[in-house]
């Protein structure tokens, strides 16, 4: 696992946007896995700036959702499809038809999960998957004790996760209890995993995921099993890493052309 410590969230966004831009130059029709929430916003903002400046062409790029609430109407402003359209598709000027996502309003949710898992494979797989990490170590909505081999499926959210997400809703009671999420096994099939974490509140989860054992109790620790996983953290999120100085020195010694 490659760990990169940056000064702040903006620097992390710039670094990851550079990696995505480089991928799109090499593979213009790359399939990008996107995450929601406040953490990845600096990435999307930095990438949109590159598009406006003509530094990267996203006209053939495709994007795929990591997860979706179950039971929200398709046009609900906090459905993850709406969030991705608002924060990624529109700012980047992407073709809406290039947007893949699970159907959280399906009558048969299990069948919708299986269809989405197949669709990702039929699309050639995700080239770069952007991830966040929960304060309990979850990725996507794979809560602690999720199977490390799990596929796209319906999950029940813990109260802690619902409380973490309540800031996007009027009341905690409005936060859905269930989601469709790519499973850990599905996530690990992406060619490059990039996890971004910022703030002291994520420090313990980052330390457990990076330096702890691979364990279902810390789902993000599964990234240790991936051949190309990059964890980008700001100084606050890196504050509990025992090997922080080593990670700083290792990244500083990399050739400029190598990227992440």
UniProtKB/TrEMBL annotation:
Its EC number is 3.5.99.6. Allosterically activated by N-acetylglucosamine 6-phosphate (GlcNAc6P). It catalyses: alpha-D-glucosamine 6-phosphate + H2O = beta-D-fructose 6-phosphate + NH4(+). Keywords: Allosteric enzyme, Carbohydrate metabolism, Hydrolase. Transmembrane segments: none annotated. The record marks 146, 153, 155-156 as: Part of the allosteric site. InterPro entries: Glc/Gal-6P_isomerase, Glucosamine6P_isomerase, Glucosamine6P_isomerase_CS, NagB/RpiA_transferase-like. Pfam families: Glucosamine_iso (PF01182). Catalyzes the reversible isomerization-deamination of glucosamine 6-phosphate (GlcN6P) to form fructose 6-phosphate (Fru6P) and ammonium ion. Belongs to the glucosamine/galactosamine-6-phosphate isomerase family. NagB subfamily. This is Glucosamine-6-phosphate deaminase. It comes from Streptomyces hebeiensis.
């Amino acid at each position: 696992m490659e760990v990169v410590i940056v000064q702040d969230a903006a620097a992390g966004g710039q670094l990851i946007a550079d990696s995505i831009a480089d991928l799109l130059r090499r593979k213009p029709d790359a399939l990008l896995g996107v995450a929601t929430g406040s953490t990845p916003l600096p990435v999307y903002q930095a990438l949109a700036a590159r598009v406006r400046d003509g530094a990267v062409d996203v006209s053939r790029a495709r994007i795929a959702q990591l997860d979706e609430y179950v039971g929200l109407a398709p046009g609900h402003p906090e459905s993850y499809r709406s969030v991705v359209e608002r924060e990624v598709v529109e700012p980047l000027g992407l073709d809406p038809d290039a947007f893949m996502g699970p159907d959280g309003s399906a009558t048969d949710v299990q069948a919708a999960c299986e269809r989405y898992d197949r669709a990702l494979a039929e699309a050639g797989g995700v080239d770069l998957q952007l991830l966040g990490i929960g304060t309990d170590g979850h990725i996507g909505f794979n809560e602690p004790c999720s199977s490390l081999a799990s596929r796209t499926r319906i999950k029940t959210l813990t109260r802690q996760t619902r409380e973490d997400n309540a800031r996007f809703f009027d009341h905690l009671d409005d936060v859905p209890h269930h989601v469709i999420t790519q499973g850990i096994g599905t996530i690990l099939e992406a060619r490059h995993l990039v996890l971004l974490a910022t703030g002291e509140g994520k420090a313990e989860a980052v330390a457990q995921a990076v330096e702890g054992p691979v364990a279902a109790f810390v789902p993000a620790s599964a990234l240790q099993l991936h051949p190309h996983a990059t964890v980008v953290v700001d100084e606050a999120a890196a504050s509990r890493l025992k090997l922080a100085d080593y990670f700083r020195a290792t990244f500083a010694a990399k050739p400029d052309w190598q990227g992440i």
